[in-house]
Amino acid sequence: MPSRRVSRPASTGSARSVPAHHEAEPDLHTVVFDLNILLDVADLLGPPFTWDKFRDAAARHSQAPVPNRADSRIDSLRAVALTTTGRFAGLR
């Protein structure tokens, strides 16, 4: 969805364009997971957490069936991996 701007008067009396919402990454979305999803990922990866371990595990399990009846933690890992960028497939 394109970014929307609204025009509001500035304190000097002139009109200026200001963002209608945060525009640093206007196409990003926030996803909030239940703590159990994050605990599943932590349990699957083991300590200490690193993004390299996370990416490796996500790549390794990317072709696993969904839902994964053998290990539901893999479903949690994939859910977090698919939303980590904030960009969902099909939106752009």
3D structure, described in words:
The structure is a single chain. With 92 residues, the chain is α+β, with helices and mostly antiparallel strands. Helices cover 36% and strands 11% of the residues. The chain has helices at 35-45, 51-60, 72-83, and strands at 5-9, 15-19. A two-stranded antiparallel sheet has the order 1-2. The N and C termini lie close together (9 Å).
Described by strand count, sense and barrel closure, the largest sheet is:
2 strands, antiparallel
Structural class of the helix and strand makeup?
Answer: alpha+beta
Strand content: 5-15%
Q: Average pLDDT across residues?
A: 75
Helix fraction, binned, reads 25-40%
Q: Name the poorly predicted regions.
A: 1-16
Taken in chain order, the helices and strands follow as EEHHH
Shape: globular
How many helices in DSSP terms? Answer: 3
Terminal residue distance:
9 Å
Spatial strand sequence of the major β-sheet:
1-2
Radius of gyration: 20 Å
- Total DSSP E strands: 2
Key phrases:
3 helices; 36% helix; 92 residues; disordered N terminus
Brief summary of the model shown:
The protein has about 90 residues and is α+β, with helices and mostly antiparallel strands. It is about 35% helix and about 10% strand. Strand 1 (about 5-10) and strand 2 form a beta hairpin.
Write the layout of secondary structure elements.
Elements: E1 5-9, E2 15-19, H1 35-45, H2 51-60, H3 72-83
Antiparallel strand pairs: 1-2
Helix pairs in contact: 1-3, 2-3
